[in-house]
């Protein structure tokens, strides 16, 4: 993790999600986007989750990536307390084919969106974060163009 | 609503849930259990939801009934912040047959249970609340026995 | 199992559910709540299931936890015959992602609730049982507060 | 309903199922198979359900048709208490596309089968009952052959 | 397999279903009900399937058990061509949690029922077949009563 | 219907499917592809279904479109008895969101494909039939190119 | 539609999606974010879809919102051809509870994310677009804070 | 792969689909139908996918088989750009039981059909391709008749 101020805050509901979320870190490292990773459970650590999301903007984060399984409320809790874009990664928890995590993450009520990616798709969450941050960052846009070019030539991510 | 201190706190994620939740109020009235009803969205009003659940116990509530649709996080938010039993009512929001609300309510992570009843089952949420409160209340237990007797004789609820 | 009169009656539909249900026993032991565990199939031993649920209240039980898989009727049979709160644990039986057990447990008709927890969530069933029993038990409430505190500090259950 | 001893016992979980179950009565009338119809809820009237199924055989019934919705336990309760073949009709209760009723009816544990027909398929339940009774009844078999012939010529049921 | 005329005809869509269907043979052997077993694919061997079902009655069969996976048409093809009761066993083919086999077997159109048992439930298919044959067979009924008694005492099937 | 020998045989499981299947006839008329339409139930009229599919090739048909609902076996029965390409239209029968028809049509076993289109997609079934017939018909290919051009300009089908 | 260069490009697969997508336009108007709306079908107008997405960045768009139903590929086609963040709105097309649109939109392969919002959630798509554009726009961030405040006070969107 | 001009173009979204798609090649080899196989991702290589489908007809291909998983757009992209029949193979990507791939492939909008086969059914895709090409090829029809005969005698494919 770089010593720069993190722009992306990765949070996950359980330490057991860490192996899956490393795929996001690999992408952010590749694009040189500073980030931080924390395990915060929306249900077991509601105060921390509440605080994290409320302070995210003033701490300089530009995007939050929240990963959780089953009744996956973490992304929703983040989105409730910040105006930053929140990306949700539904983690497959072993039942219902992963539909529980997906529905809990994506079916948010009007007013509070979560930008949901595919089940266990930490990689795509990170690319989406980069795309968002690249909005006013020509250098990052250029890197995204190169990345897209490499994908078309067979790069595996 | 009685002037007694409420023992059951009904919260619902949207004012549009009120017609469905009146079925719970009818049951609680029938059993003479004092309650209060509030519309609090876990996502649009996270502070209020946070506060409500944290103060519930000291305000004298004994059970919380939380009803919400789609990515139904309200019951989970309540359960995260209180040691009171929280009953979740998944409200059918119009898509996925109601599976989204059900999965979001019931599939809670280890450590933070939500006592989930059937989709749109406000009636059963209230009966369950009465059963819980009746634990050390012989009079309420007697009423529950009569109620069960009436059910067996064809009473519609 | 303590020599005290059990307050929680754990029943499960098959001996094969026992390894999963030990998680409930660990929680009840932790909180010092006396319990008993029995294998009773709603379908293969209907008389026993019928009797168990009818006698539960007078035997001093305060909560029943019923775990079963597939067409999981055990919790419903219990709830039909007692005014005690019945907690249902849908056990994943290998097909349909566990939706069969979940739907069979949670979608109870008006008048007869089952407090359903997540698929295979014996731990949460037990915590919910403790929360219910704690209603008029300040000592147990205090233990629940400590438990919640420990959860927020990373305790795994 | 004929004055003959009924051979088929139709039970349904709610009076609201009666319009759907009339389709079964029409078929049984057509084949001249005597039957009886009763509303018995497995959950609201467990004693009656228990008694009905235990006495079915000695009362001369040869087949039971049980219809119920949502967490549809009625057929399972019948099957638990009798050695007669039990036909289950999953009734669509308005949620989950009817999957809740279907799974609750068909996914019975080893040892206790329920002969499940399609969702809301009272007609097929009755035809299946006739097929079972026809096992040693040449006249009924002949009627079934004629019926099949009529079906192939466009008869609507 | 006994040298008696078979009363139950077991057909399965693929030789790969044989290990699962042995559970049905064990039950029929236990009850002394003569049977035969054949692999006939409704789709790869439509002539044989057609013939088998059309000749079943005159060959003396009283019940057909048909097991198939995925788009499981075998039971339906049987039911289309015979007035005998046809029991369908949906075999889990590896996708969709087994819902494909279940829906294909159970959701039959009006006029042509299939008595569907649970996914992979060969055991229950055989018990149901015995229950049907027992209709006018006091000895078999007695065996079923004993079997039910043994089940209630913990017999595993 | 033209007096030319039909190239496409439309079969549907129930007369109630006719309104939906008219969309296929409109497409075939537009492309000048002669066709015939018949109501044949795989389950109520197995002989006719059997015969139709066995004679289809020698009668000059080049493609079969089979539409059916619920346990939708009609396309599978056709495919079992002919080497012609068979297009399956899963018809939504009112339950399970249409998943029953879809799974019953598409999940065919190895060796016997059904070319499945979307639920209730009679239009696409007909276009696919034209695409298949156009394989060696330059005039029809030209019409398909024009049709695709019109679609891109906003033509509604 | 403002005369400013649009920052958000709304595309939808069918003119029939327009009523639902007006909810997005209302939000963008409220925040003063210029946008454009076009009906482009990924399947009927692949050239236009291809061109639109390839030119989006150089035309000055910062975010694309793509709405489509059933096999909803429009958002995926957009995401394949641009480095801009693409927000997908799964439109309920009448079958499968909307699961078809949702799965087609969200389950993107590694390398090409679509930021998916809830079924028919045009409102949330627009809010998410504003959140993304606000990344380096303090005025827009301030408006988002006010909006969040209004939501918490009961504003309906 | 033969040196003849390929008639069938197999495309798959990922190199990881190759082991599954070899089953299609085995069938095409058996029938002597020349083919080519390419890995082209609709999302990572949209230009190639676009080009491939637009040139398919003039390159002499008669049928395209497209296999992809999750949000499986490859077959749809092919179908959007060619008048050739396109066969879609939904590949199970590990979540949701394969329903994501199936729905994304089959639920195409009016005007642009994809001939969908079962999940992971590369074998059936190839047989369907042969059936289509055989339309005006008596020799290939004869081979299909022999193949069907062999299937009925137990040939495994």
Topology:
Eight copies of one chain form a homooctamer.
Chain A: E1 8-12, H1 18-31, E2 35-39, H2 46-55, E3 63-69, H3 74-81, E4 86-91, H4 99-106, E5 115-116, H5 122-133, H6 138-152
Parallel strand pairs in A: 1-2, 1-3, 3-4, 4-5
Helix pairs in contact in A: 1-5, 2-3
Number of helices of chain A: 6
CATH class of chain A: Alpha Beta
CATH architecture of chain A, by name, is: 3-Layer(aba) Sandwich
Largest sheet of chain A: 5 strands, parallel
Backbone shape of chain A: globular
Uncertain runs of chain A = none
Element-by-element helix/strand order of chain A: EHEHEHEHEHH
What report would you give on this structure?
8 copies of one chain form a homooctamer. Chain A has one domain: 3-Layer(aba) Sandwich (Rossmann fold). Chain A is 43% helix and 16% strand. The first copy, chain A, has 6 helices and 5 strands; from the N terminus they run βαβαβαβαβαα. The first copy, chain A, has helices at 18-31, 46-55, 74-81, 99-106, 122-133, 138-152; strands at residues 8-12, 35-39, 63-69, 86-91, 115-116. Chain A has a 5-stranded parallel β-sheet with strand order 2-1-3-4-5, sandwiched between helices. Chain A starts with 7 loop residues before the first strand and ends in a 5-residue tail after the last helix. Chain A binds chain G through residues 57, 62, 83-85, 87, 102, 106-108, 110-119, 121, 123-125, 127-128, 131-136, 141, 144-145, 148, 151, 155-157, and chain G through 57, 62, 83-85, 87, 102, 106-108, 110-119, 121, 123-125, 127-128, 131-136, 141, 144-145, 148, 151, 155-157.
